[in-house]
Amino acid sequence: MQQIENNISGYILAGGKSSRMGSDKGLMLLNKKAVIQHAFEQLEKSVKNIFIISNNIEYEKFGFELIPDLIKDIGPAGGIYTALKHTHTNQNFIMSCDMPFVTTSAINFLLQKANSSQINLAIHKNKIEPLFGLYSKDCLAKWEKLILQNIIKLQTLVTHFNLQKIDFDQNDLFGDKLFLNLNTKKDFERALSQLM
Questions:
Q1: Residue 167 and residue 56: Cα distance in Å, rounded?
Q2: Neighbours of 101 (CB within 10 A)
Q3: 65 has which bridge partners?
Q4: Is 175 helix (H, G, I), strand (E, B) or coil?
Q5: 193, containing H or E segment
Q6: What secondary structure does DSSP assign to 70-115, as a single string?
Q7: % of the chain surpassing 90 pLDDT
Q8: Are 130 and 158 in contact (CB under 8 A)?
Q9: 49, 10 in Cβ contact below 8 A?
Q10: Which of 22-39 are b and which e, b meaning 16 or more Cβ less than 10 Å from the residue's Cβ?
Q11: Closest alpha carbon to 156 in 168, 143, 167
């Protein structure tokens, strides 16, 4: 593996209940690989260390340190809180396990465009992608405070911080499927057809 010169930790959130999918989506096979493998194979080329946030010990088989959710049952807001609480680096790339079309070039594009904002997020089709971005550890105290106020929707949470939105639509390198999330069986079938 190449030597990474930055000091950025990578966190992949795989803690969802996958209720709409019917099984743990990060472990489902897509093109003979677990969905989460598509994520970490791209991420590991861009960050120093990778951690998986999940309560499912099956993820240990991939060889990365597994971090259980510190706050359960509040969705990805709890996963990001866990990452910020766990990290020893100021900058942390956080992404969901269920975006199989994310590429190293997309990750690097965001890292290159990132500034000193507390949060740097991709924006695609005028929509913020809170599970594809760079989060500063400085967010931790306020993130916890907002959760205690029951503000747990990511689209709302991130607006309480100094946020830079990085527009991916202006770059021809990135197509529509880049941020495709696998939330339902229909999404999964669509992803399969696009890999063929």
A1: 34
A2: 19
A3: 51
A4: coil
A5: helix 185-195
A6: SS-SSTHHHHHHHHHHH-SSSEEEEEETT-TT--HHHHHHHHHH--
A7: 67
A8: yes
A9: yes
A10: eebbbbbebeeebbbbbb
A11: 143
Q: pLDDT for 41-96, tens place per residue?
A: 999 999 999 999 999 999 999 999 999 999 999 999 999 999 999 999 999 999 99
**165 DSSP β-pair partners:** 121
pTM of the model: 0.90
CA pair distance 185, 22, nearest whole angstrom: 8
- Indicate the helix (H) or strand (E) that contains 122: strand 119-124
- Six-digit token pair at 178? 């880049």
Under CATH, what is the fold of the domain 8-195? Spore Coat Polysaccharide Biosynthesis Protein SpsA; Chain A (3.90.550)
Q: What pLDDT band is residue 135 in, cutting at 50, 70 and 90? A: very high
Residues whose CB falls within 8 Å of the CB of residue 37, separated by 6 or more in sequence, listed in order = 62
**74, 151 in Cβ contact below 8 A?**
no
SS3 state at 189: helix
